[in-house]
Amino acid sequence: MEIKVALARAAHQEFTIEHATLEDPRSNEVLIKIVGVGLCHTDLVARDQFIPIPLPAVLGHEGAGIVEKVGDAVTKVKPGDRVVLSFASCGVCGKCHDHLPAYCHEFPVRNFLGTRPDGTSGVGVGGQAVSAHFFGQSSFASHALAFERNVVKVADSDLPLELLGPLGCGLQTGAGAVMNSFACPAGSSIVIFGGGPVGLAAVMGAKIRDCGTIILVEPVEARRQLGLELGAHHVISPAECNVAEAIRAIVPAGVDFALESSGLEAVVATALSVLGSRGLLGLVGVPPKPESAVSVNLASLITFGHRIHGIIEGDSDPDIFIPELISHIKAGRFPIQKLIKTYALDEINHAVEEQLRGNCIKAVLIP
């Protein structure tokens, strides 16, 4: 079938809106009409070749839509079902069996190579196959092919489906880091570095977990104010003070948990410095360079029992965690609409600029 896509043709260049062809779904695949897709930083680092997916490529990995057709082996969904798309996993390795599919042994192959696991692509432009199947979906498009394992049925018909795509990656990463990876107990203290969609989802997750002290470190005033509205007890501007001293003024003994979403070495170092005894630092931010590194004081690590945890996709099993987040949305505890601004898919380059300038927290593209 013919579809419309936003195509990444070259690193650091604008996306182009083009016509493409999409194959029918294979036995374990699902054809989805996309109604909304989140724009994530990971899409941009893939376009710019930090993730070396061959270009040209159809990216996009926070899709939501309506099932139009399913392969003959698919039993999880049927045509007409509303779904959120998340990352791909094999379903048979030990980590998948442990409900940790983000650590699937085949995660890079199934999410980053630009092909199906067998090396084929279901998307063509100008008669030539292009990279697709990004995170098992490539949803910067009017229609996408996903695998049965990475579609999650949305049972509630009263929710705006076009806004739910970011649950598949960014929002489940931030909320999941707090609710799954940390499993913050009630009354615990947490500092969140970065008030983008991942950080603000973490703020909402910390409120859901009833954390006693929630601190948000964020340079943009409007995002700090939104952080307070979403549940933060304290906000800190890194341009106005020594961040570590400001955090210690609030929690002198150091925090129980710190979540770092920027990937910047200096911020990671600050996050380590404010941990309390047996404090846990979670890292979700993509670093600016593959060789990015920080120095760790081993004596401090051993003396205070500090822990560092790299977190992928909020340690979530999408089939379990996305419905949980949807229940929080329905109850008003996870108001994602406060983060989202919508754009037409044709406006993708404008949306990229708006997001990079901080004029919008989470862009969602409507095909």
TrEMBL record:
Source organism (scientific name): Massilia cavernae
User: What GO molecular functions are on record for this protein?
Assistant: S-(hydroxymethyl)glutathione dehydrogenase [NAD(P)+] activity; zinc ion binding
Q: Which family does it belong to?
A: Belongs to the zinc-containing alcohol dehydrogenase family.
> What is the protein's given name?
NAD(P)-dependent alcohol dehydrogenase
Question: Required cofactors, per record?
Answer: Zn(2+)
- Does the record carry Acyltransferase as a key word? no
Gene3D superfamilies (alphabetical)? Medium-chain alcohol dehydrogenases, catalytic domain, NAD(P)-binding Rossmann-like Domain
Looking up InterPro entries in the UniProt record yields:
ADH-like_C, ADH-like_N, ADH_Zn_CS, ER, GroES-like_sf, NAD(P)-bd_dom_sf
Lineage of the organism: Bacteria, Pseudomonadati, Pseudomonadota, Betaproteobacteria, Burkholderiales
Short name of one Pfam family for this protein? ADH_zinc_N
